[in-house]
Amino acid sequence: MFEGFHSVLRLAGLKVGVGEWLTVTQALDTGLIGPSLKEFYSTTRALVCRDEADYDKFDQAFAAYFQGAQLPTPVAQMLQSWLDNPLSKPPLSPEELAALPEYDLEQLRKLYEERLKEQTERHDGGSHWIGTGGTSPFGQGGEHPSGMRVGEGASGRGQAIATARARRFRNYRDDVVLDTRQLAVAVRRLRRLERKSRRLELDMPETIRKTAANGGDIEIVERPERRNQARVVLLLDAGGSMDPHVRSVQAFFSAMKQGGGLREVEAFYFHNCVYGEVYSDMALLKKKPLAELTRSVPPNTNLVMVGDAWMAPRELFSPYGSIEYGTTDEVPGIDRLRDLAAAFPKRVWLNPIPENYWGESTIRAVAEVMPMLPMTVEGMVAAVQVLLGRGERVAKRTPKRPWPSPQEIF
Amino acid sequence: MSISSQSSLPAWTGTPSYIADESLQAIVNVAVGLGRPLLVKGEPGTGKTLLAYAVAEGLKLPLLTWHIKSTTRAQDGLYLYDTVARLNDSRFGDNNVRDIAQYIKLGPLGEAFERSQKGERVVLLIDEIDKADIEFPNDLLHELDAMRFTIAETGREIRASLRPIVLITSNAEKELPDAFLRRCVFHYIEFPEETQLARICRVHHPDVDEKLLAAALRRFVQIRAVQDLRKKPTTSELIDWLASLRLSGIDAAKLEATLPFAGVLLKQENDAQRVFRATLPRR
């Protein structure tokens, strides 16, 4: 029963193995799952999903299988990521501005999805679509997609499909920027526990050994507690192009500071690119020479840079490239980054802008010097792996194959 | 309707005080029928822990609870060998020190197995499994699969003959290992919708004034919709809030313009200010 469903689930990105699928069929055979589609939906979801982040994928697959909806194409996903991560507000003409308030986000998204469907079916180029629709949502940046109800009421086939089409669980996908707690959990993996603390704890095995050697008279042995020795130097871009990402940077920063249990977290700021000095305040007033930062790096120190790495090429490659008033540095920014790279063997660059944009020349150049990862929970977890020296395992994620439509599968 | 085929248990349909929607009922029955642990996640206050109590109550089975702390080890759930007591007894000769069995204390998991060995089916709640070390769930895999273990000190084997019904809750503080997840049935409890919330409130406050309930709910939903709250108020806070409102005899109409007992709902200073700014009329 439902053989094709298994492959649709896998195409949607769920890791449904033979074992899981056998469980589903077993539950169906033994009558554990009732005959209603809604019950089939919720129980199957309970058996094949392992995280609420999977629910969205499941909903898509369910809608695709039972209602012939399209699995998202890479184009659709890219556009969705534009909607979810507004980049900057392009200048709008007064007419455009006037037209803007008439759409709320929900309508916009609906419009988008409809356009998108047309587009994938006709296999058009995307220029028309991006040209007209593309500018308006940028003005609405930072909204949550949770309110979206696409496809509701469209089904005469029962509640479950409508639920699936609504995709209520999109917020739980793990490739979006999430709250600090989850980031803190990721950061916690950076720990390097060493017995270097001044606080002592009871050393049980040694106490027993000494006590036994003493003929049963108890002798207490103490040893230093295990403490996290990992340090982090944070370099944060405070440039104007980072404005749309302030919230995610803040979340990340507080996760680092409070949640990680790290031995030391030092934060410095820069503007677009690092030059001869970094600043210990966001207003870029208190200077600290870069040389001081790179001179003596204690062991277990990790460099984490946060920025969009998106700038005019001359800001990165030319001498005196800084556009900041009062900053003159003969050395091009890219060389300063190389200095940092040499001083910090453990380093990553977290970029809040979506990976689709990473083809930009300055971003590519920075990524060559600093291992670059997206500033999402997923990216943060990968970044910690890189910092722990297990980078190869996560290094290159294989680009996903374009989605075939359900018609191609069956 | 679902049938719990592998057991003589009736299908679980919630309890008078625990309201479960159809899909949750179906999932619980599938987990029971398949004999797999049910892993429950969800926002705080959505009734993850209470679900275990409700399952036990609904199926009329005894409930064993195992609350996990950051220092809990998998071994603690099986049994503890109290060496200190034995050492103490050896010095002062109170008991028969050669009888090791008396120093073995079964943990919650061990007890669940032992009771089911005697033919008694139990519900076991493993609460907040993510609090423990990252490797903790993996250490439990074998015991949960085989439903038996051996006490090394005495050589006694404890083997469950009826699978206990295992419910596990997690707050997603740590990611759980894949091998563990593969063995579980997973359910994410969504935050209830307004009608469901009203039903839950009426269970806890059976004689509540409908006008007050409606006003409170409207306010509550409004507060939860405020952007960027660090901690959204949950169902349990709503129930407490309703209790405070009733105790002080506040009129439903008053809720339109003020937010009495805001501290019951909002536990963070910033959140409270954000809510005031977003939802209260300006003076």
Q: Can you characterise this structure?
A:
The complex is a heterodimer of chains A (410) and B (283). Chain A has 3 domains: 1-173, no CATH class; 180-191 and 229-394, Rossmann fold; 196-224, no CATH class. In chain A, 44% of the residues lie in helices and 11% in strands. Chain A is built from 19 helices and 11 strands. Chain A has a 5-stranded parallel β-sheet with strand order 6-5-9-10-11. In chain A, strands 1-4 form a two-stranded antiparallel sheet. The longest helix of chain A has 18 residues, at 105-122. Mean pLDDT of chain A is 69; it is low at 85-92, 99-105, 119-158, 171-178 and 393-404. In chain B, helix 8 packs across helix 9 (210-224) and helix 8 (194-204) packs across helix 10. In chain B, 42% of the residues lie in helices and 14% in strands. The model of chain B is unreliable at 1-6 (pLDDT under 50). By secondary structure, chain B is of the alpha/beta class. In chain B, strand 6 (148-151) and strand 7 form a beta hairpin. The N and C termini of chain B lie far apart (56 Å). Chains A and B meet through helix 2, helix 3 and helix 10 of A and helix 1, helix 7 and strand 9 of B.
Quick structural overview:
The complex is a heterodimer of chains A (410) and B (283). Chain A is of the alpha/beta class and 410 residues long. Chain A has 19 helices and 11 strands.
